[in-house]
Amino acid sequence: MKESTGQRRKERLDRGIKVRSEGLYALMSWRELSYLFFPRLVLIGGILILPLVVPSMYWQRVISIVCIYALLALSFDFLAHYVGLVSLGGAFFIGTGGYLAAILNTSFGLPPLLTIPIATLLGAFICTLLLFPCLPLRGVYFAIVTLMYPLLLARVIEALDILGGTDGILGIESFANRWVEQYFIILIVLFFLFGTRRLVNQDIGLVFRAVKDNDQSVRASGISITYYKTIAVFISSAIGCLAGAYLVHLYMWAGLSTFALDFSILPIAATVIGGAGTLVGPVLGAFILVPISELLRAFGTLRIVFYALILLAFIIFRSEGIMVYGQRKYHQFEKWIKV
Amino acid sequence: MSAPSTPILQVNQVTKTFGGISALNEVSFDLHAGEILGIIGPNGSGKTTLINGITGFIELTAGEVFFRGEKISGKPAHKIADMGVTRTFQIMRPYYSLPAYKNLVIPLFSPRAKRTGGWRGGGKLGDRNTVSIDILEELGFERESFVPYKKASNLPTGYLKRMELARCLALNPEIIICDEVFSGLSMSEIASMVPLVERLQMEGITLIMIEHRLRELFRVANRIMVLNFGEKLIEGTAEEVMADEKVKEAYFGSEAVEEVMDHA
Known about the structure:
The structure holds 2 protein chains of 2 kinds. Chain A is mainly α. Chain A has helices spanning about 1-5, 15-20, 30-55, 55-85, 90-105, 110-130, 140-160, 180-200, 205-215, 215-220, 225-250, 260-275, 280-295, 305-315, 320-330; strands at about 10-15, 170, 255, 330-339. The two termini of chain A are about 15 Å apart. Chain B has a single domain (about 5-95, about 155-265), classed as P-loop containing nucleotide triphosphate hydrolases (Rossmann fold, 3-Layer(aba) Sandwich), CATH 3.40.50. Chain B contains 12 helices and 10 strands. The two termini of chain B are about 20 Å apart. Classes of the chains: A mainly alpha, B alpha/beta. The interface between A and B is medium-sized, with 18 and 32 residues.
């Protein structure tokens, strides 16, 4: 038996409809159109309906948190797999965006409708500025520096006792009601999901991907790689800061835990589970991982063990991730053939 | 062939040392508009280092490079390419994850292409996909075939070498510096590349060609410069260069010289 499997290999053929729908859109019937639309509609519809079907307020809150992690995972996936910068900056972005929104709200009295956009843009500007020195470099420097800043900023706030010190900033305004709270972040996730998807296929997105693929060649094309890396980091940190600003309005509190490393690590795990480089995969990964982590809360400290086992199982058995696997099944026939 | 008087590229006393080893030692030459300069030399003689130095991919230890009288040494590589001094890589550097024609969208998106290309050249508003397929077709990628749409990782060496040239052409270059575009190609592939190089010259592009394929190089090049151990041995026509004693010594025993001398 073992010998005969050694003689076979899996042959993969693109489905005809996949080939037709690529590039030239020669789709004739509703059935064929639905091939493209159906998966997207399921995703959009599924996410939009989620707050209505979950059993309790508690789980509605979980959805908001899922969306925060989904944004971080999206920002990680975009930087790592389309620009080639491995970022551990989730905590950095959340903390910067969060504290900015908190200051704008408590000290300047701006409503969330203003603090969130301002914190997003200003936060992204600050993050990009602080990360700029390591952008001309290749290698692990970017990852190290993004990991260093949240630790550094948290210690600075703690040691100098500024911005509320260890108590954090209290009394931040919350959203008008829970529906605004829910649908605001859900729409944001959908916007950035489809937005980044579109961006990476534009000409500028091709330049990002080229920087990842072969930066020397980009330089030889008369394009500054540092400039495009800066733009990409700005986009990515804006997504992260937006999530952070939303988070502090959700909790009505900004504290040192916004710099917690969970925000850096969990998005990476979500990307591994969901499928690296697919953009939608990491979002789905967050929708799987965060609720699991909530369910495992009952196991107390043991939950990290279960959590690690789930991750390990994924890395061993489906290292490509759910979305890559799913897309392949959707687009291709597979059969075993004798070699 | 008489060259025009003002050189388009001047290389003055260029030196590059790696640690204690000097890879280039006070190399100088002039490049005149519209000519093809061939650079030859044994392996490790500093040819690629010279290119890297001119195009800003490595920092020169000493010496200066002028393009149209403006100093370009010390500028970053993308600025030099932006001025129109483009290069190919000896080891091809395509974007393997992108289809061939999408590879060219990147140079077409560069500031230089937007500035100089106009609408037809992809410019600011042009359709870069169309332009890139036009350029690829000029370089022998059949428009109606699957070749321009294939992922670069699935293309054979011959096409990847052409894509290196295509990337330079997409920038509307003034100078193309070719680092061994003939190496690794079959005889028939080379035979189809030679007219291509001749056409580039007719279109007014100045070329520097580093080559080990001497016979093909001598067919297209106006002048030849020989490097050995980082030093310039001689510069002149193919016949002058090959008759020189020092060159014979550098290539001593090499079949290349024998072969070329037989044909010369």
